[in-house]
Amino acid sequence: MFNSTANRPSVLKVAVAVSFSAALAFSPLALAEEHEHGKESLDAAAGKTVTGEVVDMMCYVDHNAIGEKHGQSCGAKCIKGGGPVGIVSDGKAYLVVGEHKPINDELAELCGKSITVKGKIAERGGIAMIENTEIVKK
Asked: What CATH number labels 48-136?
């Protein structure tokens, strides 16, 4: 009943415990390496330029409203009112965001016109965005 070998951990238990401890010890290193690789791709995307038409994203997505006529009537009003603003370039639409805030006031009067912007491209779930956007002056 009081067998001293019954309380000893088996080789398998020791191996599992050591493996688990090693995994916990090295997982922060793996995450840091993954984060650094992600940082490189973010840095590479930080200075992209896109030239295209400024659009009111609500009307563009709903009924493909583009062009200067729509842009200067409905589009500019929607953007001034806080609607999402985008840029369409080569058939791809990008949501345009300033430095973690809308830049609607700067882009409303340019709705329907072609401009060039510079910023970081991000994409997730089928939605593309240009953030930290700067308007490139010609």
From this structure: 2.40.50
